[in-house]
Amino acid sequence: VNIGPIFATGTKPEHTVFLGPQAIADIGPRLKIPFTVMGGIGLDNIDQVVAAGARHVAVVTAVTRAPDVAAAVRELRTSLKVQHLHSCCRRNDSTTGRAVIPRDGFRLVPW
pTM of the full predicted structure? Predict the structure, then answer.
């Protein structure tokens, strides 16, 4: 299941209606299976989709149109990890006190 397009996207320039991050917050909790979100998601707005409840983020143009594809993927993954540590799922290891990313953490999905 995919929720999108969330924002204006270069892969579907004919689309004029976008769901926005609120759609993730509205639809996501009703789904009993994992879902992806996509559509115009990049470094400038990935925090919004994560804050709305996205855990599996699919991107296309954020990577394919980047001058350095490998660097774009690294930056997006790093951003997901940072967002994850700031999300409600944050917990600390009782032994070390360090933040732990739960096994159902965030994923950047190649689409």
Answer: 0.75
